[in-house]
Design brief:
This protein is of the alpha/beta class. It contains 14 helices and 19 strands. The structure holds 2-acetamido-2-deoxy-beta-D-glucopyranose (3 copies).
Length: about 550
């Protein structure tokens, strides 16, 4: 049962502070299935309370260990009914979803319809979004509909005689069904939203165990203890991009194609023309036909934006998927859930994929600072500040090494490196630094540790949540820099802003301030080892 929330339901009481600890993060699943997330932060004698009522529903359908077997194209008259394994706005895992003539069909008796999420929270017409066309993106019966077992039998079933056999073909295995147009696929959003959210959701839905909430198991270790979860995520057989052509999901540097070949080498990809084959085969035929998807993850960006966590809170579609699974205790908060993706990419790139998973964030042996230098691209620093930043960080690293520490600095022009080399340098980074932009997507390759941080430089006054939310969802700290001003969660602006010059070539930054931030951050995290506190490390010193 789903409830529709209004903006008023997202209560945000904020009393400013600069040094925050998580006191508590309580999650309750109310009898009507809404998920209420109460988070209380504090520091400097001040408190921030945040309550989010999520429209997400906890579905408790038992998950099959084996995908359903293909339907026998034969005399069978009854088809398996549709169930929802997991749902968050924009993210829905179904068993036994059907498609005929382009509409996704939920096969269920009429009296069970109300147990399904609202269609508008699962799908849309797939049109590119803008601020005014939400009405045109609301799904219609051409996008999604219910079908009763009787109707399905009449349309597609065998009639019991030998000359009328059923006409439902199974698309075997697990399918990722992406309903978005290329608008947000052909760049950063593909890996750091679509694949990120898909994996969080699939991993969580098939997790066997439940992670304990942060504050129920006090431990002398300062970092959050996340018992490792075992998961039996199914093999992904195919991805179908319903609304894009072969190039529509590819980005210019080629990272999207690289990513999916690296992590899902056996997955096949279908695009809109392939989908049209399936649509035409089942539309306007004298005899009805349908496709049967035994296990499918349907994602839709418009639907995710109709949920409170993405639409009102983070503007990250993946945040809907991640939050539900994190709050249900199905994924950890320190990035272990993403480890297999990271390791697969590094192995593919030729690096050492060795990933030892720990229940706590570890202290790295070496501090590797990677500056994603964008001077060769459109949005970048003014040249003088770029040089000042490089000099200041180089001096810091030299000083640390003179003091006997093991620090490294990489000034990376990503566009001049092969994808393999980009992956390798990102994977060994402890601190990633750069101007807001696609290059920071590589933060998803960093192995989160106690010191891990992303430092993002914006034009003063500008802010976007892309890398901020993504960093935090992996248990890493994120700092925003406005020239000589630094802020971090939860003191980031609540609303993204793109003032004039945001995308320009004249962004200022005070290099020595950034170098001092890195020094103080690392020193604080290393000192944190001695303290006794079980608040999440990534919020502890912010
Ligand atoms: C569901 O329960 C929550 C908390 O118990 C409440 O805030 C919300 O209004 C309820 N929604 C409906 C539709 O009953
Ligand atoms: C928004 O998208 C619709 C199509 O869905 C289009 O007709 C309209 O012109 C667009 N508006 C703007 C401001 O781009
Ligand atoms: C950046 O910060 C420095 C040092 O505080 C200041 O001198 C400079 O004017 C600032 N630049 C801009 C564009 O605000």
């Amino acid at each position: 049962m789903l409830i529709r929330m209004s903006r008023r339901d997202v209560v945000l009481v904020l009393i400013g502070a600069s040094c925050f600890y998580i006191f508590s993060a309580f999650v309750t699943v109310s009898p009507n299935h809404s998920i209420i997330i109460n988070t209380e932060y504090g520091g400097n004698g001040q408190t921030v309370t945040e309550t989010v009522v999520s429209t997400a529903t906890e579905y408790v359908t038992p998950v099959p260990t084996q995908p359903a077997v293909p339907l026998d194209l034969g005399l069978a008259q009854n088809f398996p009914e549709t169930t929802v394994v997991a749902h968050a706005p924009g993210w829905t895992i179904f068993q036994n979803l059907y498609m005929s003539g382009g509409a996704l069909l939920i096969l269920t008796p009429e009296e069970s319809r109300s147990s399904f999420p609202e269609f508008r929270l699962m799908t849309s017409t797939g049109l590119p979004g803008n601020l005014t066309n939400d009405p045109q993106r609301q799904p219609t019966s051409r996008d999604m509909a219910f079908i009763t077992p009787d109707e399905a039998r009449t349309k597609w079933g065998a009639d019991g005689s030998s000359d009328r056999r059923n006409r439902v073909s199974t698309v075997e295995g697990t399918t990722l069904l992406f309903n978005d147009p290329s608008q947000f696929l052909n760049h950063f959003h593909f890996v750091a939203e679509l694949m990120f959210g898909s994996w969080a959701f699939l991993y969580g839905a098939f997790a066997d165990g439940t992670v304990k909430p942060p504050n129920t198991n006090p431990s002398p270790d300062p970092s959050f203890n996340a018992p490792l979860i075992s998961t039996s995520t199914p093999k992904i057989d195919r991805a179908i991009f319903i609304h894009t052509d072969v190039d529509g999901w590819r980005d210019v540097p080629g990272f999207n194609g690289y990513f999916i070949r690296a992590v899902f080498p056996s997955m096949t990809v279908e695009v809109s023309t392939d989908w049209m084959d399936r649509v035409t085969a089942t539309a306007n035929t004298d005899i009805g036909r349908a496709w049967h998807f035994p296990l499918v993850l349907l994602t839709d960006r418009s639907a995710a934006f109709r949920g409170p966590i993405c639409g009102w809170h983070t503007q990250r579609t993946a945040a809907e998927a991640w939050t539900v699974m994190a709050q249900l205790g199905k994924i950890d908060l320190i990035g272990n859930w993403w480890a297999s993706m990271r390791a697969a990419l590094l192995r593919y790139a030729g690096g050492d994929p060795h990933e030892e998973l720990h229940a706590t964030l570890q202290v790295p042996d070496k501090i590797v600072i990677t500056y994603i230098n964008r001077q060769g691209t459109r949005r970048h620093l003014n040249e003088e500040d770029n040089r000042g930043l490089i000099t200041a960080v180089e001096e810091l690293v030299q000083r640390k090494n003179r003091e006997g520490k093991n620090w490294e600095f990489n000034n990376v022009h990503a566009e001049q490196l092969s994808l393999d080399d980009q992956v390798k340098v990102a994977a060994k980074s402890t601190i990633m630094l750069g101007v807001h932009g696609n290059g920071l997507t590589h933060l998803v390759l960093m192995k989160p540790n106690r010191v891990s941080a992303v430092i993002e430089i914006f034009l003063p006054g500008g802010f976007a949540r892309d890398y901020e939310w993504t960093s935090r969802s992996l248990g890493m700290t994120h700092y925003s820099v406005w020239n000589d001003t630094i802020f971090t969660y939860p003191n980031e602006p609540k609303i993204p802003d793109y003032p004039d010059g945001f995308h320009g070539p004249n962004i200022p930054v005070n290099g020595p301030v950034v170098a001092r931030l890195i020094d103080e951050h690392v020193t604080a995290r290393e000192a944190g080892l001695a303290s006794v506190d079980n608040s999440p490390a990534h919020d502890k010193y912010d």
